[in-house]
What does this fold into?
Amino acid sequence: MKRQPSKETLCVQAGWQPKKGEPRVLPIYQSTTFKYETSEQMARLFDLEDSGYFYTRLQNPTNDAVAAKIAALEGGIAGMLTSSGQAANFYAIFNICQAGDHFISSSCIYGGTFNLFAVTLKKLGIEVSFVNPDASEDEIDAAFRPNTKALFGESISNPTLEILDIEKFARIAHKHGVPLIVDNTFPTPINCRPFEWGADIVVHSTTKYMDGHATSVGGAIIDSGNFDWEANADKFPGLCTPDESYHGLTYTQSFGKMAYITKATAQLMRDLGSIQSPQNAFLLNIGLETLHLRMQQHCRNAQAVAEYLSQHKKVAWVNYSGLPNDKYHTLAQKYMPNGSCGVVTFGLKGGRETAIRFMDSLELAAIVTHVADARTCVLHPASHTHRQLTDEQLIAAGVQPDLIRFSVGIENVNDIIADIEQALEKA
It folds into this structure.
């Protein structure tokens, strides 16, 4: 039996396998278009009767190689890159929801995603219900409606660091004949593989740990190939009934397990165009090659920072699942036993103003609208990423006014802790 490559090897080798005389490093196919010899060849591509490249808005060889690498890391059958993590979340939902439909989401998600779901999708006629991810199965069951098409959650929520009980959410989703979509940005497939626990679709903001160097905004959608769309055909007409924009082609009949990703590419990317640039995909691939090494260092450093903060007299509270007394420690041990991520959240005695003084006093750690790259950075979500939410929505999302999101980088951990220490003295 052929040995399956490990995640470490997949990070370096998957996606691009050059043939004789081809470049060893994945090339940047920096071309909008691709040449064919006959009109018939091009026509068959536009009818989805042949596979191939004809316009980068739909597909590009650089992008496809990187999407294939991420799919291999997640254990999925196919993937696609998008221009941002937000575009990935939008496509993942919009691929199976239309006006008049409903879906359910964990309330503990990134503020931008919360706004996308609650405000923007509502304008398109798609309604969302938010549920507490720690609610009982019966409570979550009660949120389902006849027109519910999906269940969504983040494996580790941003910024509040709740750990999603993926197995519970998958069981609930499948009981109601809908897929579970999981945003796996924070742990990455190095530390958590949601498909192994029943998730059906995974999304990523590749801007974060996957790129790892704050160079390239991007997103990805990965399909497990496990959800049976045909068994629930009445819920998913977009996949299971003819698409008149492709001469009556039915995605599930023509593409089988590839139906979801094919529709997202051939229909949504065709019409909405949130493609990742080949240049960014190239940079993302370089980041992926060291993802397994960086995640280990992020987690080691974050563990040390969390332990230091938990003992400091000026710190009111710390959230990090690596701490034995953390609320989500047991779930983290189940779903990500080798580490969660490099993000630690905490609050200071004295509240919001003390938190701001602390942040303004940091020297090594930078205040940036970003998280999860090689450099240590910090943010105050209530003032920054989540400032569009009302106080009630902030509380519902688990974001307290004093919450500091501290993204621990891969610098020397003693230097990071020394910076925290001097800033706490000034707070």
User: Anything to note?
Assistant: The chain has 17 helices and twelve strands. The CA atoms of residues 166 and 173 lie 10 Å apart. The radius of gyration is 22 Å.
